[in-house]
Amino acid sequence: MYVFAIPGLTIFGLLIPLFFFFLLLNKKGKLAIIKVRRHICYLFNEYNQESFFWEQIKFLKKTSIILVLTFFESNILFKASLLGLCLLVYQLLAGKQQPYIISSLNNLDLQTGQICSIAIFIATAKYVNEQEAENVSSQILQIVIIILFIKLCSLFIFDIFRGYAKKYKVQLFTLIHNIIKMIKPNSQQAKYINNVITQLKLKEIRLRSNYQILKTASQEQIKRQKCNNQAIVNQNLPSLNRYKKYDSATNQFLLTIEQ
Questions:
Q1: Which helix (H) or strand (E) holds 24?
Q2: Overall number of domains in the chain
Q3: Is the pTM of this model over 0.90?
Q4: Superkingdom of this entry's organism (predicted)?
Q5: Among 68, 64, 44, 40, which residue's Cα sits nearest to residue 54?
Q6: Between 239 and 76, where is the model more confident?
């Protein structure tokens, strides 16, 4: 077992994160270049410039949790203490670094870590109560853990729901409008929702138009920049040719003197 486990942990838990860390460190000043972002942007795209390495920190946290769960499977209390310590250290680093560009993601990251830490310590207390046959307190703690689980899921579910509602709000209002029209065809609610749908569609059209304008302007700016660079090169080309001819003549003269 250890013949396969130790090399696997070494490769995936140590060598690969170190490789990506040094790769990002080497490309630190070039992370905004399109050629670089095209290949490794998934490693730093959601983090600020000072926290380009944060994906490796998260990977290290996950690896530590897996190691604790694997090697301390029988010692429940010690395992829970180490897990809580790992999460606590990560929360301290995350609270100080604030790695995400979007501040709400920083808050979400801290909240999830705090909820998981609380759940771990409550689960430890529940384990102790079960060992001492205190069923009532154990059930109460179980309910608290379930509440924390619901709270943890709600942080993501509501954000996902809001994201999809924002993306498909026109379709959602259209569905509501069709349902109301089936019930009350000429109601004020149907007219109001129809006006809302019209405004949303106009807003989408304006956004697409503005995006197309920005895209065209950026393409034209890139073309102008390329033309300017080419013009500068063309202006410097005669001087460069004269320098090459002068350098060649100088080398030939020195060679003649040596002969």
A1: helix 16-26
A2: 2
A3: no
A4: Eukaryota
A5: 44
A6: 76
